[in-house]
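Metallophosphoesterase family protein
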Amino acid sequence: MTGPDSTLDAESDWEVGPHASVEGRLVYAIGDVHGCYDILTRLLAMIADDVAARGQGRRPLLVFVGDYVDRGPATAKVLSSLVWLQRHAPFEPRFLKGNHEEMLLAWLDDPAEARGWLRVGGAETLRSYAVEPPAEVDAIDDHLRARDDLLERMPASHMRFLQALELTLTLGDYAFVHAGVRPGVPLRKQVPADLLWIREPFLSHGKRFEKVIVHGHTWDSAEPMIREQRIGIDTGVYRTGVLTALRLEDGRIGCFQAKGAGDPLAIRL
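Predicted structure tokens:
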């Protein structure tokens, strides 16, 4: 593994030692998508090409670390594509829950209590389903109207997808979560609030955890952050136009990125 302040280029690929295991699997982890459908389809096409080149008969595991909704313009299309992947992809897809899915579900349950969601990308999600957001964040009746409109227009498959998201996934020497973990707390005892929302003291923690933590949620540039104890793969696609995939194999990691909005590419899987 690289040093504490190292970052990856889009073409990076290197050994990390014989004990960094994913139990013989070929694993791809994808950072926060945030409604950026066009770039997601481009990255999925890149992954399909990579699998064809190096799969060697292995069934790949594809892990999304959450935050599929909000901020970008096409949440509805993103969720449709992920539902499609669940049903048709020739690999094993696993979908983790992010704090933005948590906020969306809370708003659907009680718009009055969770109306702040509109300030952090909820309005874009509503528009992606052709629902007009409330003009005023504090207009409770407008929130109730928008919630009812969204429930009418959101496919049932999208709701089932959101309600079934996982909080964590562990494989070999790696653990996948959305935001991070609380230092000093065993993985099995981590609470949902930290898994979905934590930044500090997780980000500045300088010691190893039980596993290498692969996470999203926090970004400061279009480059992923690679440290001994954690790998951050959120690269702020809704602002930077860069969506990142991390490839994990036994003793080796790699990284590649899809960039720019452009025209949507077919998912070649």
